[in-house]
Amino acid sequence: MPLPPAPTKRAALLSPDAHDAPARSSHRGSRRSGESRTDSASSNGSQPLELFDRHAADAVGGGTEAAPPMRARSKTAPSRGQRQQPTARQESEAPPPAVQVSAPQQIAAASQAPARPKRSKSNGPAKLFVLDTNVLLHDPMCLFRFEEHDIFLPMIVLEELDGHKKGTTEVARNGRQTSRTLDALAAAQDADIGKGLKLDTTGHREAGGKLFFQTAPLDYSLPISLPQGKADNQILGVVHALRDLYANDQPGRPKQEVVLVSKDINMRVKARALGLAADDYQNDKTLEDGDLLYAGSLALPADFWTRQSKTVESWQSGSNTFYRVSGPLVPNLYINQFVYFEAPGEPSMYARVTEIRDKTAVFKTLKDYSSGKNAVWGVNTRNREQNFAMNLLMDPEVDFVTLTGTAGTGKTLMALASGLTQVLDDRRYTEIIMTRATVSVGEDIGFLPGTEEEKMGPWMGALDDNLEFLAKGDGGGAGEWGRAATNELIRSRIKVKSMNFMRGRTFLNKYVIIDEAQNLTPKQMKTLITRAGPGTKIICMGNLAQIDTPYLTEGSSGLTFAVDKFKGWPHGGHITLARGERSRLADFASDVL
């Protein structure tokens, strides 16, 4: 039975307070805007109808461009809302189905999307960013990362970009990708380089600015101590000229702040010395501060059980105990995050979050790998974080594991021990594939002879050291011949691969270890992770305090990128190893050096 048309009459004729009530209760974020509209409605008798029309316009238009003209007309001609009153009454006499479909949709659309008009309004005037060549070579998609701001490319930048397009390196690939992007923008329909190329013509709707090329010589004067022929100084001269050019409002060209964006620290220092605004390219950073990185574990407060005692449910399944808890801590939890409770005089509890539903979370107790009966290939965990990591490494439902920590925390040893157990004993995977970023700490020693594995041999010293320890511990009293046979068996199941030949491959039922992952860029990390096929498990590990790749920091490393993007995924896990177990000398050196 169709509903009566009463809601339409009430929406058009009720008092302002009653009319605003559904908008305030339907969406939490629109409460403040609803109160401000109520205040304005109390001072103008025709405001309720104006509000209804505004909701209708926003819902029908679906965008933010049509809303401001509607509001402008309503404010300049308040009598227009009075003229629309008979129209609203006539519409209420229409057949109920048509009215019931349109009015609730208009009100719901207006209440559910209060943030769209706010996003279109910038905090200030649009800026003009002058990009250095290294920014384009670092991120070929940087042209679309500046939202509503404009971008300017000096001619010398295009010359340098052309000089870097040859080769098979990552820089050369980025240079070619940038050139193709610029060509697509220039070839778009109705593109006019003189007036600026719209950055959203190739489908990147988040870019609302324009791209300007240097089409005419610019007059500038730099100190005589800066050589005029150097490319960096020419870019500084262009920024200097643009700053003077856009310092004041002119017909057809508003005043804009000109900012140089460069990955070169010395370039930014010289710009600031000349009084020019300069900034680093920040969009490649996953986190502003490395201390904000997801740790993978959380300490429960001391009063956790006393506060939650009324809402805790527990049950037993096999050797594991499950707890279902609720409370203010649940919204801050992630799937596969480890929680622990340690208090003097009370039993400790170590668990992993296995389910988050509404306002409740389920904790599952862990397997204790510090016990001798649960040793993994002769390796026992020595601290809390290592036990967390081993639970992730031995779980067949976890396909992606990231381990971070300082030197000597046991990342490589635990990854190899769990891999050998699952390859040789459990037959869960067919073999172990190990790779790492070949970035030198010091000077490069040149080309290395031999096959792929022989070339990777000098980079895999950590593998050899840990395999020697594992083979020695597993051999027991087998003697020299037994240890040799164990070594041969282990070596036959471990393949060392170079990252240079990973593209296009698919790993089936493999246990892949990516060592020194902190030296990978986010793009390289994506290339490696997407090689995983059915039944493959990938372990990424590294020390974010030892990054050797130029232009990479803790915030922009591929390892940081992977940790942040995979947190909360049901088949991925991360843990930060806190305490070193290599030796007292190594632990002391990590702290004081």
Please explain how this structure is put together.
The chain has 593 residues and is of the alpha/beta class. Among the domains are: 126-278, Rossmann fold, CATH 3.40.50.1010; 295-363, Ribosomal Protein L25, Chain P (Beta Barrel), CATH 2.40.240; 385-438 and 454-472 and 480-590, Rossmann fold. The protein has 23 helices and 18 strands. The strands form three sheets. A six-stranded mixed beta sheet has the order 3-4-2-1-5-6. A six-stranded mixed beta sheet has the order 7-10-11-12-9-8, with no helix packed on it. A hairpin with a 7-residue loop joins strand 10 and strand 11. Helix 4 packs across helix 8 (96-112), helix 16 (384-393) runs parallel beside helix 17 (411-425) and helix 21 crosses helix 22. Mean pLDDT is 77; it is low at 7-16, 18-122 and 440-445.
